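Deliverable D5.2: sample structural annotation.
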Amino acid sequence: MSSPAPAAGPGQRERLILLVIATVLAATVLWLRGGLQPQAPLEALARRSPDLHVALGNGHPTILEFYADWCEACRSMAPAMDSVESSYRQQLNVVLLNVDNPRWQPEVERYAVNGIPQLELFDRTGTAIGRSIGARSATELESLARALVNNEPLPALAGVGATSNLALAPVIPAAGPRSHG
């Protein structure tokens, strides 16, 4: 004869109900936050960026992007920048510097970053040859990358300009890249 199932002890039923509720809540929070996705493209790209001094000295042209995690334009441009980095990995450096990281403050000042995303474009010798301010489409990023890799003139895009080799006038402190939000 089989023995009857033991009766639930005091509080066991309540613990089971709480466990079910906690599981449902955890699943809901996970779903609302986007699930178990890999890192966002912007974060992943920044983590695998080479150091700026290495990039400017390795004989490949370089795209340097100043960005911030909270910058909507930076986040929307990230998948296209990731695609450019993947397509040209052996020919082009893509370096991302977060303007909110105090470590990069000297570079923020050196390149007079006053809006983001800001791209600094360098030739194979590490010489600054252009700048782009504002979001870029995938097509525009591809054309910039292709011009850098092929050592061609930068494409004529709105907001893209050549840099001058002339000494710059002293920078007067003004609104910084984090002043708009």
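Annotation notes: Residues 165-173 have pLDDT under 50 and may be disordered. The chain is about 35% helix and 15% strand.
The annotation will be released with the project's public dataset once the embargo ends.
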